[in-house]
Amino acid sequence: MLYATIFVVAAAALGAKAQTLYDAMSKFPELSNFTAFIANNPNIANNYFGNTSAYPITFLAPNNDAFMSLQAKFGANMSDIPADTLLQIIQYHTMVSNLTKSDFNNNGGGQGLTVPTMLNSVNNNRSVGISMAARYGGATKAGGQVVFVKGDSGSPGRLRLMSRQDNPNGGQPANTVRSGLSSNVGITAIDGVWNGGIFHIIDGLLTPPTLCSTTIRSAGLSSLDLALNRTQLWNSLDSTNNITCLGPNNAAFSNSGSPDSKLNTTALSGALLFHTLPQVAYSDYLYDGQEFKSLQNMTVRVKIVGSGSSKTIYFNNAKVLNANVL
Ligand SMILES: *[C@@H]1O[C@H](CO)[C@@H](O)[C@H](O)[C@H]1NC(C)=O
Ligand SMILES: *[C@@H]1O[C@H](CO)[C@@H](O)[C@H](O)[C@H]1NC(C)=O
Ligand SMILES: *[C@@H]1O[C@H](CO)[C@@H](O)[C@H](O)[C@H]1NC(C)=O
Ligand SMILES: *[C@@H]1O[C@H](CO)[C@@H](O)[C@H](O)[C@H]1NC(C)=O
Ligand SMILES: *[C@@H]1O[C@H](CO)[C@@H](O)[C@H](O)[C@H]1NC(C)=O
Ligand SMILES: *[C@@H]1O[C@H](CO)[C@@H](O)[C@H](O)[C@H]1NC(C)=O
Ligand SMILES: *[C@@H]1O[C@H](CO)[C@@H](O)[C@H](O)[C@H]1NC(C)=O
Ligand SMILES: *[C@@H]1O[C@H](CO)[C@@H](O)[C@H](O)[C@H]1NC(C)=O
Ligand SMILES: *[C@@H]1O[C@H](CO)[C@@H](O)[C@H](O)[C@H]1NC(C)=O
After folding, report:
1. Above 80 in pLDDT, residue 7?
2. Which of 77, 213, 289, 302 is the most buried (most CB within 10 A)?
3. Beta strand residue intervals within the chain, DSSP E
4. Which residues line ligand 1 (CB under 6 A)?
């Protein structure tokens, strides 16, 4: 009797390890559109998800709602997207490590988790940074564009995942992800096991990051837009790699006397460069007292106040309302 029990447990463990992503996802009715897509695209199943040298990975599987809203929004489903674009979308949904619910929930005392994806050919003008490279298997492996996952301590297992443009107003509905094109994406971290790693379920497609100008304009930062127009800094901002913009909102501009319209362009350029840091500064890699030299050569100092979900980040005296807009 004892032996039989041990045998069954061992067999179950082996069975769980030997599954392809397709097999593992087939058990979830809400993923039927994606499993049908995989069944119709054996090249993606075999060459991409079957590529053992990329293992372990975490796939963020779009549920049927994600397919339906894609259809509603663009009149297209994944079968209609050109193959190269499709591969990029799937790469952006693949994290380069096997990450579980506890990795998302436990990270950094409420600062969230920035994770590199497999998307490295396009939409990625950043360099990795020493800390992220060390955490995710080296600069090459961690070189892809990132997503940002934020745990919601109130309801374990439901998380927020921000792939790109976060809510410009700073008020984030719990359990959602705001990605490109202002879509909200929620993640249900189910820790699904397959032979290449883990998968979780998301309720919308992630949108790869794009140019700074597009991002700032779609976030409604019109004073910053005006300032960048007047100083003609858009081109260098859009073509410089590896920078972080501390983008003042419209209230910040009006509260400081509307420099976007009133300062001359020399002084305004200096002010904008003071808000530009020459490296990538994700919120989960910031620490209290950290200093950056801005492009205008003056020091910007990080201050972190509070803890857990009430943690607030400041750059000098300016409070961060909306972190990690990619
Ligand atoms: C895709 O999802 C929709 C909505 O849930 C469902 O009606 C449809 O049958 C699904 N298609 C496939 C192929 O699973
Ligand atoms: C398999 O993965 C490795 C590591 O990410 C990558 O270098 C290689 O190009 C991939 N092969 C294919 C066929 O995609
Ligand atoms: C997507 O399009 C393909 C072919 O155009 C079609 O067979 C499939 O049913 C569509 N899927 C959904 C979820 O509408
Ligand atoms: C993640 O992958 C590593 C290396 O392959 C392995 O040691 C570890 O057990 C895996 N963790 C999970 C949660 O699958
Ligand atoms: C990346 O930088 C190149 C120039 O260095 C630029 O042409 C391209 O548009 C940039 N792409 C993004 C997504 O920022
Ligand atoms: C900045 O310039 C662009 C392109 O010329 C224009 O579309 C936009 O309205 C301008 N923004 C502001 C705030 O004036
Ligand atoms: C621009 O404004 C600054 C102060 O706001 C002033 O010191 C400077 O002389 C002005 N430059 C020009 C060219 O008017
Ligand atoms: C980009 O920033 C990282 C730190 O986040 C730094 O290590 C790296 O040298 C920077 N790369 C470039 C090209 O400036
Ligand atoms: C900042 O200093 C560097 C050299 O240390 C110089 O090349 C650059 O022009 C300075 N930038 C500004 C805006 O003064």
Report:
1. no
2. 302
3. 57-62, 94-95, 113-116, 146-151, 158-162, 186-194, 197-202, 244-245, 276-277, 291-293, 299-305, 312-315, 318-319
4. 32-33, 36, 64, 67-68
